[in-house]
């Protein structure tokens, strides 16, 4: 019986491998072109998170360039499709360190001609709010919510005051859109939960010393969510796009969150383009690091963004009770 089991199992493994390979090849060949950005979709995420995965094979300068290019495009595309909130995250905290540079990056330049009115430029308020991130702030419960390591900003698409209509231009309605942007790092994940727990414990201990209460303290889920997802926290995203800076290498490994706050993705749809390849790094070992990184690295593309929106629009969601 054992002599027959081995060839039978071997045959099953061969058939399974052929089926998986055929399906993968078929998906590559029959990959549909995603809908345009301005196409009508069944649903659009209100809160979109974009997780950028850096790689040590890509030098820091190239990584920063790819991140800035991706952020600028993500903000522009989010405004165009009507997304209300955008969360930007990278596993090294580069975006948070360069939050002020991001403000300048997505700020618009003056429009030299009427032809640029329809362009999805981005306008910031005259006095944009400063970043909420500060490592020197007190961890006392009174000022704890303001110590969340998140940089906040908002972008607004310009109002289309003129609408072309033959030889004459007609006035259109106010269709300006506002996008709230949150820049988050790994520090907003488990380190923030640990800091919050210490702050709450210190507060309760001080109350017991003063004599305000002697009952045992129990941290409820509602109170925990108030700190994590309150006005000064981070609300859960509806949809997440995972974009590796080095897609050829990352797509050969299992999908990870790389320190993104795990409690924020209980009902989050996740997209990652696992079919995308750039180049194999082992074929470029003789090139300088800067040149090799330029070939291997990749910014967020409009194809990815559109395909991700199509996936979210076609996802079957069952939230339960």
From TrEMBL:
EC number: 2.5.1.87
Compartments (UniProt record): Endoplasmic reticulum membrane
The protein's annotated pathway: Protein modification; protein glycosylation
Cofactor(s) needed: Mg(2+)
Reaction catalysis annotation: n isopentenyl diphosphate + (2E,6E)-farnesyl diphosphate = a di-trans,poly-cis-polyprenyl diphosphate + n diphosphate
GO molecular function, one term: ditrans,polycis-polyprenyl diphosphate synthase [(2E,6E)-farnesyl diphosphate specific] activity
Keywords: Endoplasmic reticulum, Magnesium, Membrane, Transferase, Transmembrane, Transmembrane helix
Membrane-spanning segments: 6-27
The protein's enzyme class: transferase
Gene Ontology terms: cellular component: dehydrodolichyl diphosphate synthase complex; endoplasmic reticulum membrane
Name this protein carries in UniProt: ditrans,polycis-polyprenyl diphosphate synthase [(2E,6E)-farnesyldiphosphate specific]
Species, as recorded: Tetrapyrgos nigripes
UniProt lineage: Eukaryota, Fungi, Dikarya, Basidiomycota, Agaricomycotina
